[in-house]
Amino acid sequence: MTVERSAIRVGMVGYGFMGAAHSQAWRSVGPFFDLGRQPAMVALCGRDQEAVTVAAERMGWHDVETDWKQLVTRDDIDLVDICTPGGSHAEIAIAALEAGKHVFCEKPLSNTLPEAEAMVAAAAKAQERGVRSMVGFNYRRVPALALARRLVADGRLGTIRHVRAVYLQDWITDPEFPLVWRLQRDLAGSGALGDIGSHIVDLAQHVIGDRLTRVSGLTETFIRHRPLSGGASTGLSASGGEGIGEVTVDDAALFLGRFGGGAVASFEATRLATGRKNAMRLEINGSAGSLAFDLESMNELSFYDGTQPADTAGFHRILVTEPTHPYVAAWWPPGHLLGYEHSFTHEVADLLADIAADRDPTPSFADGLQVQQVLTAVERSAAGDGGWEDVGR
Amino acid sequence: MTVERSAIRVGMVGYGFMGAAHSQAWRSVGPFFDLGRQPAMVALCGRDQEAVTVAAERMGWHDVETDWKQLVTRDDIDLVDICTPGGSHAEIAIAALEAGKHVFCEKPLSNTLPEAEAMVAAAAKAQERGVRSMVGFNYRRVPALALARRLVADGRLGTIRHVRAVYLQDWITDPEFPLVWRLQRDLAGSGALGDIGSHIVDLAQHVIGDRLTRVSGLTETFIRHRPLSGGASTGLSASGGEGIGEVTVDDAALFLGRFGGGAVASFEATRLATGRKNAMRLEINGSAGSLAFDLESMNELSFYDGTQPADTAGFHRILVTEPTHPYVAAWWPPGHLLGYEHSFTHEVADLLADIAADRDPTPSFADGLQVQQVLTAVERSAAGDGGWEDVGR
Amino acid sequence: MTVERSAIRVGMVGYGFMGAAHSQAWRSVGPFFDLGRQPAMVALCGRDQEAVTVAAERMGWHDVETDWKQLVTRDDIDLVDICTPGGSHAEIAIAALEAGKHVFCEKPLSNTLPEAEAMVAAAAKAQERGVRSMVGFNYRRVPALALARRLVADGRLGTIRHVRAVYLQDWITDPEFPLVWRLQRDLAGSGALGDIGSHIVDLAQHVIGDRLTRVSGLTETFIRHRPLSGGASTGLSASGGEGIGEVTVDDAALFLGRFGGGAVASFEATRLATGRKNAMRLEINGSAGSLAFDLESMNELSFYDGTQPADTAGFHRILVTEPTHPYVAAWWPPGHLLGYEHSFTHEVADLLADIAADRDPTPSFADGLQVQQVLTAVERSAAGDGGWEDVGR
Amino acid sequence: MTVERSAIRVGMVGYGFMGAAHSQAWRSVGPFFDLGRQPAMVALCGRDQEAVTVAAERMGWHDVETDWKQLVTRDDIDLVDICTPGGSHAEIAIAALEAGKHVFCEKPLSNTLPEAEAMVAAAAKAQERGVRSMVGFNYRRVPALALARRLVADGRLGTIRHVRAVYLQDWITDPEFPLVWRLQRDLAGSGALGDIGSHIVDLAQHVIGDRLTRVSGLTETFIRHRPLSGGASTGLSASGGEGIGEVTVDDAALFLGRFGGGAVASFEATRLATGRKNAMRLEINGSAGSLAFDLESMNELSFYDGTQPADTAGFHRILVTEPTHPYVAAWWPPGHLLGYEHSFTHEVADLLADIAADRDPTPSFADGLQVQQVLTAVERSAAGDGGWEDVGR
Question: Shortest CA distance to D216 belongs to which of D374, D388, D373, D377?
Fold first, then answer.
C-alpha cells in the first residue's frame, strides 16, 4: 500500500453495521470531495482473526489487528475510528487519544455518564496537543437537516417555539424477535432511548441551536421477555435461539422538554411503531416559519415561510439536491437522490477537512456527553414520578 | 311557500346524482353567500309522479311536475336547471330559453354537435332579451382551481409550455359491472371522453386562459360486452341483470393537444384506472412557475414559484382554505375543508349574482360547444390514423 | 311553518361559528339520511333581536327568541342545541333537561369541573324520563375516524401500544392578534388545551376504545399580552382595538399519558404552529397494525396492516369515500370528497336516529366530563412539577 | 496493482457525469455484493492526458489511456465500460467486442439506428465467442422498479391496460442556459426524447414485460436559440459564452403508444417542466391492481391491490428497503434509503454475476436497439401529421 505523505491514516475498530457504513464513507470521500488530506484505510481491528481478515479484504482495509490496544499505538495510524458497541467506547477512545491519535467515535459516546465524562476530559487534554475528536451523530450531515439548521440560523423561522421529534422503528414488534445485544442493558446501556432517542435529542438541539434545560418523561418495556439470541445478529436483524431472557432496556421512551431559549418540545423514541421503519421526524415551529423532516424521505425538507402572502403560502417541499444545498455539490445533478450512507461520507469529509485545517470538529465529545446528560435526566424522571428534571444536574 | 319578490324561482328537471348535488347547492347558497337575489326552490320535474314527489319532499322542492314542457312554461319559474342525461339537454334548454327562462344546464352541453350548436344559437337569441344561460362545468369553482386560474392570469407561471391533465376513475374495472346508460352511445353520447374528458378539456383551457387548436388521439374500449343492467342505477353504482349487451362508448381516451399560445398538452380520461376513484389531476408548467392539482385532494394546490432562491424553492402545498382564496371566505376558518358539493354551491352563487347584475355567466353555452368541438376532433383523430385534427373544423 | 307530527323540533342557542355549522347540519341531514324522524328548525335564540332575526332568516330558522330561558320552555321545542361559549353551557343545558328537552351541547361540556358534574347529574336524571343528551365532539363522525375506530375494534391493530395526537393551529401566531374571548380564562375556561386539546383526548380514547388513567405535562403562554379586541370577532378571525390586555389561557399544552390497557401516549395542542391551519393528527401503533390521520386531509386514513407480506407491506392511503365506509353511502360516489361541515350532519343524523329509537346517543355528558377530568389533571401536573396525575382524582 | 486471477479487469472510456457514477459502482460493488469474480479498475481513458490522470487518481483507476483504440486492445482488460456521448458508442463498442472484450455501454445505445443495428450485429457475433454486452438503462435496477416488474410478472396487476410515463426535468428552462452538447443534434442525436424519453420507454416495456407496437406523437423546441457554451459543462450545468446558436434537438416530446398485449400508454419527456428536477414517474393500471412510482421519491413504490376489501383498499406506500426487496439485502437495515448511484452498483453487480456465470446480461444491445426504434417511430410521427407509426417498420 502506497500512502501519500499527507494522508490521514485510519484504523477502525469494529466491522458490523456501523463498520460497513464507515468503510463506505472512507472509500467514497476522496472521489467526491476536495480534501486537503486524503484518508488511507490502513487497518481494521476485530477479535476474530479470520473474520476480520475477510471483512478487511471486502471493505478495503489494507491490514488487520485483533487487539485494539495494538491498533491504537501503531505508528502508521493517525486516526482511530471506533465502531464497537457503546460499552467499549471509553476505554478505546481514551487510549487512542493518549496515544496521540485523532478519534472518531460512533454514538452514543458511551453507555454511562462517568465514562462519557472521562472521555471528555481525555479529549480536552488531547486537544491541547492538537489531537481531535468527534462523536458520530451522522444525521447532522444529511443535507436536508444541515439546510434546516442553516435556515434557523439565518432567522428564517424567527423565535423557536415548538419542537416535535420522534424516532419510530418497528424491528422488535414481533415478540419472537430474540434478545440481541441491543436489548441488554449491560451491553447497550439503554434501549430506544439511547440508541435512537439520542439522535433526536442531538438533532433537535443542533438544528435550532439551543439546548434542553429540563425534561420529564417515561420509558416503557412492552415485551419483557424474549427468546435468547441463537446466533449472529447483523444490523437490526437476528434469528432466535433457545431459552427465554429478560429485556433489560426500554422499548420506548417519551419525554417533554424545555429549551433554554423558551421553546417547548416533545420527544418519542420507540422500536415498536408497527410499519415505521426509520421514521426519524423533526418538526419545528417558529414565529416566522416552520420546518418538517422525515428520514424516510431524507432528501426532502418541508419549509413554511410565514412571511409569504396568504394566497400562495404553504409548506414548500424542498428537494434538497441543489448545488447550493449543503454537501450536494459534491455529488449528482439536481433531483438525483442521496442515501443513508452519504451522511457518513459527509461526516468524514468534514472531519478530514477539520484535521487538515487544525480545527476542532463537531459534534465534540462534550456535545456527546451533553446528549447523555439529557437522556440520563429522562431516565431519572421516568424512574421517579415523571416530573421535571434538570439536565446536567 | 312564501317567496320573496326578488327571489329567482327555480325549476329543476332530473333528480339523480346531479339533481341531488344541485339541490344541495340551491339549499346552501343562501345561508353562506351574500346574494342580491335569493333562490326559491319552486318545482322539481320527473316522469314518475310518485318518485318525483318523494324526491321533491326530500330535497326541499315545493312542487312537482311530470312533464318538463309544463315546467318550462310555468309563470312562477324564472330559471330552469337541467340535470337530465345529455340526450335531452337541447330540447329542454331551447324550450326554456324560448319561454324566457334562464337556463343552467349540466355538462356536457349535449350529446351531439348539431344539438350543441342549436343551443348556442338559442342562448344567443335569448341573451338579447336578458335571458342568461350557463353550462355546469362545476370544477371551475373548486377554490384550488379558481386560485390556479388566478395565479396564471396574474402571470405567476409566465408563458405556459406544458399541460398534463388526466381524469382517472375505476368504477367499471369489473367486467361484471352492468351496461348502465352511461355505457350506451345513444343515451350518453360518448364514454369517458365525454363524461370526464370534457371536464379536463374545459379546465385546462379555463385555467391557462387559452384554447386547444389541434388534437390527436385514441379511444379504447377494453371490455366490449357487459351484463345488461337489471334495475335502477344510482350515481356510479348499479346492479347487474340478465343477458349481455355491447358497450358502445369508449372506456378510455388519450390525446395530445396544441394550444393557440404554443403550449403542448396531454390528456387522458379513463374509467378503468384501478384504485383511482376520482383522480382528476392537472399539471401546468410555465416559464416562471408550475402548478399541480388532484381532485382526490381537492383542498390543496401545489405551486412552484420559479423566482424563488434555489435553497428554499419547492412546490408549495397550499391549503386552499384561507379567506383570501376564491369562495372560501363564505365558509369556515382556515384549515377547515370543503367538499365536492361546494363546487355546485359556488356555481349557483355566481349564477345568481350574474343574473342579479344582468351579466352573462360563464361558462357559456358557447364554451360548452367549444369543448364538444375538441372532443369531436379527438374522435375524428381516433377513428382515423391518429393524426392531428383541427378543433372546430 | 308546517311541521310533520313526527318531527323533532329544534331550538338552537347561539349563532356564531358553531351555530352556522349546526344550522347547515340541521338543513342537510334530511335530504341525505334516512331518518325515522325529521328535524324541524323551529327557533334560534340570541340576545340581540335584530341580529338574531337576520341570522335566523339566513340560516333557515323559522322563529327567534332573545332569552334562552324562554326557548328551553317552549312547548313547540323538543331539542335544544347549545352553541354558545362554554361558560353558559351548564345553565342552559340543565334548564333544558329539566324542561324535558333533549340537549345537544357543543364541546367543551363546560368550563369547570363542578359545572360539568352538575350537567352529568342532570342528564342522568333526565335520562330516566327518556330525555337524551349528547356532547358535540364532531370529529368522531368524520368518516375516516369512524373507520379508524372500527378497524381497532375489529382487532386489526392488535394490542395498542402507542398513541400520538397533536392538534396544531397557527391563528394567534401574530402577536398583534387581539385578545378575543377564546384567550380569556373567564370566558373560555382554558386555551388550546380545552379548545382543541379536548378534541384529541376524546378522539384518542374513542378510537382506541380505552381511557387515559394518568397524565403529566406542561402548558405555555408564549405571548402574554395582546391588544384588546376592538370589535366583533367571527370564527377564528378578529380585528384589533385599543389597549393591551393579559392573555389568561394557555397558547399550547403538551402532555404524556398512560392508558388503562397499557398504551403510552403523547399529546400536543397549540395555536402557534406556524403554517399548520387545522392539523389534528392522530397516529396509533398496535402489535398488528398502525393508523395515521390528519384533519387537513380528512378524507384519507393511512392504515398499515402488519400481517401483510413484507414485499408489499406499506401504509395504505385509504380514500374514505367508499359506500362501505361510515356515513359515506348517504353522499356521493367514490372519490367525491366530504368537508368539515359533514361531521356535524353525521352528528345530528345519529342523534335523531337515537332519539327516534329511544337510545342514548354518544358521546354522553359523562364522556364530556371525563375528557375534562383528563384536561384538569394535565393542568394540575403543569401547575406543579410536571409529574404524573391520576385522571379523575 | 495486484489483481486477483479471477478478477474482471475493467477499462472505462469517458469520465464525465456517467464516468463518475460508474466509477462509484465499480468501487462499491465488491464490499456489498457477493461476487464470483471481483472487478479490477485497471484503466481510465480520455483524450486529455492531464485531465484523465487527475480523474483516474481521484476515481480510483490504476492506469490511464488517451486513445480508446489502445484501451480496447490491452491484454489486461476484460471489459470495456463506455461512458462517452452517444455519437462514439458504436465505434468503440464494436472495436471492443471484436477485440473480445465484454462491453458495458451507457444508454442511449447510439445516436442513429444504423449504428445501433451494427452494434447489435457485433454483439451477436461476439456472443458466439462468449463475449457479453449490456446497455446501461440503470433505472431497471432501482429496487422499487425491480419490485414493480416482479409484481407485474407475478400477476398482481392482472391484465395491463394503462401505462402513464413522464420524465420531467427543468434544467434548460432558463433561455440563457447555453447551447451545451446535449442540445446539438450532431453530438446528442436527439434531445429530451433520446436522453430521458429513452428511459421511460425502456422502463415501461421492462416493467410490464411487453413491447410498444405503434406510437404517435409530437416534439417541440420551445427555445430555438441559445447562447453558445463558453466553457466546460459538467453534468447538467454549464456557463454561457459568447454568440448565439441554434438548438437542433427537441426540448420536449409527447407521444401515445399501443402495446402488443393491448395496453394503451402516454409518454412525455421534457427539460422545461419548471420545478421538476428528475421526476421520472411511471403509473400502471391493470385489471387487478395498479402501481405508481416517482424517481424523486425513488425508495418508494405505490401499489394498489384490487383484490383487497373495499374498506381498507388503498395505495400502499411501500418503502422498498426490506431485505426481501430486490438488491436491498446487500445494503442497510429497513428504512435506510438508497440513492441514485446505487442503481449503477446494481447494474455492475448483475453484469459481473452474469459474466461469471456465462450468461447474457440484460438489457442487451438488441433491447437498446428496440428502444431506439420506438423513438425513431415517434420522430417519424412528429415529423409527419402526428399519426400512428409502426415500431421497427
Answer: D388
Q: Is C34 helix (H, G, I), strand (E, B) or coil?
A: coil
What cell numbers appear for C126 in the block?
333526565
The answer to whether the beta carbons of residues A306 and A285 sit under 8 Å apart is no
Q: What is the rounded CA–CA span in Å between residue C44 and residue C52?
A: 7
Mean pLDDT estimate for chain B: 95
What integer pLDDT is reported at residue A36 of this predicted model?
86
Contact residues, chain C, for D291 at CB < 8 Å:
none
CATH code for the part of the protein at C143-297+299-338+371-383? 3.30.360.10
Measured CA angle at C359 (ends C353, C363), to 5 deg: 85
The alpha carbon of residue C149 is apart from the nearest alpha carbon of chain D, in Å, by 13
How confident is the model over D340-383, as pLDDT tens digits? 999 999 999 999 999 999 999 999 999 999 999 999 999 999 99
Q: Nearest CA to B113 among B387, B361, B384, B379?
A: B379
- The DSSP H or E segment spanning C117 is helix C113-128
At C83, list the grid cell. 352553541
Strand partners, B284: B163, B291
C96-to-B49, C60, C90 alpha-carbon distances in Å: 43, 22, 10
The Cα–Cα gap between C197 and D78 comes to 68
Of C58, C235, C340, the CB nearest to B30: C58
Place of cell 443513508: A340
Please measure the distance between the N-terminal and C-terminal CA atoms of chain A and give it in whole angstroms: 50
Within chain B, which residue ranges are assigned CATH 3.30.360.10? 143-297+299-338+371-383
Burial status of residue B362 (CB atoms within 10 A of its CB: 0-12, 13-18, 19 or more): middle
Yes or no: say if C200 and C165 are a contact pair by the CB < 8 Å rule. Answer: yes
CA–CA distance, A185 with A204 (Å, rounded to integer): 25
Cα radius of gyration rounded to whole Å, chain C = 21
Confirm or reject contact between A155 and chain C (CB < 8 A): no
Distance to chain C for B179, nearest Cα, Å: 18
Is the distance from CB of C299 to CB of C142 less than 8 angstroms? no
Q: Which residue has the higher pLDDT, B99 or D185?
A: B99
**Which three cell numbers mark A388?**
421535571
Question: Is residue D6 within 8 Å of D29, Cβ to Cβ?
Answer: no
Identify which of D173, A294, D177, D167 has the alpha carbon closest to the alpha carbon of residue B304: D173
C-alpha cell at D3: 489483481
Closest partner CB to A290 (pick from C255, C275, C285):
C275
Mean pLDDT across chain D, nearest whole number?
95
DSSP assignment string, D187-251:
HHSSSHIIIIIHHHHHHHHHHHT--EEEEEEEEE-S--EEEEE-S--BTTB--EEEEEEE--S-S
Architecture of domain C8-139: 3-Layer(aba) Sandwich (3.40)
CB atoms within 10 A of CB D1: 10
- Give the type of residue at D151: L
By C-alpha distance, the chain D residue nearest C316 is D316
Q: Coil, helix or strand for B369?
A: helix
Instruction: Give the rounded distance of the alpha carbon of B191 from its chain centre.
Output: 15
0.90 surpassed by complex ipTM: yes
- Among A346-360, C62-76, C290-304, D179-193, where is mean pLDDT lowest? D179-193
Q: Which residues contact C382 (CB under 8 A, 6 or more apart)?
A: C217, C218, C219, C253, C255
C276 contact residues in B (CB cutoff 8 A): 335
Q: D-chain residues within 8 Å CB-CB of B166?
A: 164
What is the structure's pLDDT at D392?
87
Q: For residues B275 and B262, is the Cβ–Cβ distance under 8 A?
A: no
In this prediction, residue B236 carries a pLDDT of 64
Alpha carbon distance, N-terminus to C-terminus of chain C: 50
Measure the CA–CA gap between C256 and C249, rounded to whole angstroms. 20
